[in-house]
Design goal:
It contains 11 helices and 15 strands. With about 325 residues, it is an alpha/beta fold. Helix 5 packs parallel to helix 6, helix 7 packs across helix 9 and helix 7 crosses helix 11. The model has no long low-confidence stretch (mean pLDDT about 95).
Length: about 325
């Protein structure tokens, strides 16, 4: 576990970034969160509620598109950067490709340039399973072709390529972590588990895009965070990419059945047409992360969904993230 290190987390007010920050703050690291608190969804303040009270956590409102601001934050003897900020979401990228591109590609390039101007020892880049595109075989290892379908996947792959280029050209110690559909308390309100839970608890029918036989390697947030922290401690990661999934998959139909069982509310889903940009299956081969990072995800989908539903039920409505209108 990292301890007493000087750390910057971009996107630290988001779903994954805020959980990562909580774990690092708990272990006496000196943590700066850097986030523009954009309105992709609301109530990011609730994500960082507990962090605001911590002496070893500073919250900075700033944009990764502002290179001068990044240079100035990194001047402050930051040792490790977790670059988590992005415009996430496959479906939103189909609607808003320029926003996705500028945040994810130009934003990451800015981060790399800022790191190059600094004394940062290691940069961890949040990437995505969507860099793979349609699976040629399952489970997907890191040598699988990268042929993204969505503009989002293309942007995350471009960001990874810039990271690798900066490693090759300037020796920047950077690695990319390919997260697989992460869920848990405070999950983004545009994602399936969040939407389905909200609908089922209101006794409303959830909408399934396509026939529901598509599968995802749903990964519980605590497992993702443990992999992210392990990647900062591990050696031999420079220029590399790692899958961080659970290593199992579940169909959207089975997900709905599990949520019905967990909540005790029986509803019938509505089926509609497939979403553009959606891939049929994701399923991570996590051998590389196990061997090099010591990554060992623990939480089953049943246990993780229970934690999500418990969180949802026990959270005051004004602290549940809301989708942007
Ligand atoms: P999130 O939207 O909750 O968090 C992203 C944060 O980045 C937000 O707080 C947002 O305000 C901030 N941000 C956006 N643009 C910014 C900018 N220009 N400057 C500064 N801050 C900015 O999303 P998340 O689900 O926590 O995803 C975090 C990262 O993980 C992203 O890089 C995403 O692409 C990647 N990822 C997420 C998943 C998932 O299942 N959640 C899966 C694969 C990859
Ligand atoms: C998720 C994140 O949103 C991306 O940011 C991330 O990069 C990606 O995981 C990843 O793993 O790389 P996605 O798998 O589309 O993308 O996540 P969900 O929103 O949880 O969707 C899972 C499945 O449920 C998809 O097939 C989607 O089409 C389906 N879905 C979603 C529905 O059928 N109905 C809904 O209302 C929402």
């Amino acid at each position: 576990m990292l301890e007493e290190r000087r750390i910057l987390i971009t996107g630290g007010a988001g779903f994954i970034g805020s959980h990562l920050a909580e774990e690092l703050v708990e272990h006496n690291n000196i943590v700066k969160l850097y986030d523009n608190f954009n309105d992709f969804y609301f109530n990011k303040e609730a994500n960082i509620k507990s962090l605001k009270e911590k002496k070893n956590c500073e919250i900075i409102k700033g944009d990764i598109l502002d290179l001068e601001a990044l240079n100035s934050v990194l001047k402050d003897d930051i040792e490790i950067v977790f670059h988590i900020a992005a415009q996430p979401g496959v479906r939103v990228s189909v609607q808003a490709p320029f926003k996705t591109h500028s945040t994810n590609v130009t934003g990451t390039l800015n981060m790399l340039v800022a790191v190059q101007n600094s004394n940062v020892e290691k940069l961890i880049n949040a990437s995505s399973s969507s860099v793979y595109g349609p699976p040629k075989y399952l489970p997907i290892d890191e040598n699988h072709p990268t042929d993204p379908v969505s503009p989002y996947g293309a942007s995350k792959l471009a960001a990874e390529k810039y990271c690798k280029s900066f490693y090759r050209v300037y020796g920047i110690n950077v690695c990319s972590l390919r997260f697989f559909t992460v869920y848990g308390p405070r999950q983004r309100p545009d994602m399936a588990i969040h939407i389905f839970t909200q609908k089922i608890l209101r006794n409303e029918p959830p909408t399934i895009f396509g026939d529901g036989n598509q599968t995802r390697d749903f990964t519980f947030i605590n497992d993702t965070v443990s992999g992210v922290i392990a990647s900062a401690e591990a050696k031999n990661t420079a220029g590399e990419a790692f899958n961080l999934g659970k290593g199992e998959r579940c169909s959207v139909n089975d997900l709905i059945s599990l949520l019905i069982k967990t909540t005790g509310n029986a509803v019938k889903p509505i089926f509609t047409k497939e979403m553009k940009g959606d891939v049929s299956h994701t399923w991570a081969d996590i051998t590389k992360a196990k061997n090099i990072l010591g990554y060992n995800p623990q939480i089953s989908i049943e246990a993780g969904l229970k934690k999500f539903v418990d969180w949802y039920r026990s959270t005051p409505p004004n602290e549940i993230p809301k989708a942007s209108p």
